[in-house]
Amino acid sequence: QFLLRDHFDWHYMSIAGAFSIIAGTWFARAFLQSRKHLPRFDYALIVMLVNAAVLVFAAVAGLTTLAVLSITLALLMYPLIVVAALLRWRQGSQEALVFAAGWAALVVALFAQALRDLGFLPHDGVNYYGPLLGSFIEMIVILFALGMTLKRLEIARSAAEQEALIDPLTRTKNRRSFFRLAGSALDRSRDRGAPISLLMLDLDHFKAINDTHGHPVGDQALQAFAAAVEQQIRDDDVFARVGGEEFALMMVGSPKAVEQTAERLRRVISKLSILTGDKEIGFTVSIGVAHYSDEADIEALLQHADRALYDAKQAGRDQVVVFAG
User: Read out DSSP for 253-309?
Assistant: First the structure.
């Protein structure tokens, strides 16, 4: 209206209004995910989009009656988005309730403007600036709804990242997480000159447990084993499941202290048992220990601990062997 003073008429207002409806409805469908969560109701929002396209056509073609009908229909359908938001809220989306409040403010503003233009409300300051205020409130409230959505997505992303580092059965760290954390621990100990060691732990005769009693019992054994180890170690020790029945433990401490811990773990595990039916199943663990000397990286230290574990298995199992390279 500022730029087109001499030729400004209802066509431009109708076209601008139509594109506002299209943008707003499209955004509402995306925000509420109505196509996925409200498939039937989504058809009504699609009708709003089609009606806005009809309004554009009517304005360009100069079809005044059709444009008035289209604008009226659009105004009457605007509350449907509030209803859609409330339905999404009932499905569990908290931000949808905030969105509904914001969109309701816009609906009130639009109806107030329509009543003013039709002569049902006086053209005073309140009725002139009220619709503008309502639209402004709508934008601010929907920004809050967007913020809630972003926060929820960030929490979900963080939880997914954390879950990707956890072994789903034993709830210990997994192999990927172990190499990242243990590698960092090794670098820190190397820089400080602090002693650090790596332990490889393997449940003895685990395949026999699975074959004889079934995988569910084997799973119980792994869970009981992991829980027992975690009760015996410190919070800053890195403990993870790196294979089927193989676990790794990175510990900072003197070689003597680490070997004492390994022996204590062996004794604790040898006293564990799980019930299956009327039988009580016990199990033992073999442990290979490698103290850091001049290994290039965590993989090299892991190979040495693996070699010590192999020697423990060959020597009869249920014992601790220290790598002597």
Answer: S-HHHHHHHHHHHHHHHHT-EEEETTEEEE--EEEEEEE-SS-SSHHHHHHHHHHHH
Each residue of 124-162: pLDDT tens digit? 777 778 778 888 888 899 899 989 989 988 988 888 888
Strand partners, 287: 201, 320
Matching residue, tokens 């707003």: 24
- Active-site residues, by number, are 245
**Assigned token pair, 8:** 């400004």
Q: Which two tokens stand for residue 210?
A: 């699975």
Whether residue 54 contacts residue 66, with contact meaning beta carbons closer than 8 Å, is answered with yes
Nearest 5°: the CA angle 27, 16, 34 is: 20
What tens digit of pLDDT does each residue of 73-91 get?
A: 988 998 999 999 999 999 9
What are the C-alpha distances in Å from 203 to residues 10, 210, 225? 81, 12, 8
pTM for the complete prediction? 0.60
The two tokens of residue 11 are 């066509």
Instruction: State how far the Cα of 64 lies from the Cα of 59, in Å rounded to an integer.
Output: 7
User: Residue type for 232, please?
Assistant: Q
Q: What is the mean pLDDT of residues 58-80?
A: 89
Q: What is the torsion angle, in degrees rounded to the nearest 10, for the CA atoms of residue 119, residue 125, residue 128 and residue 132? A: -150
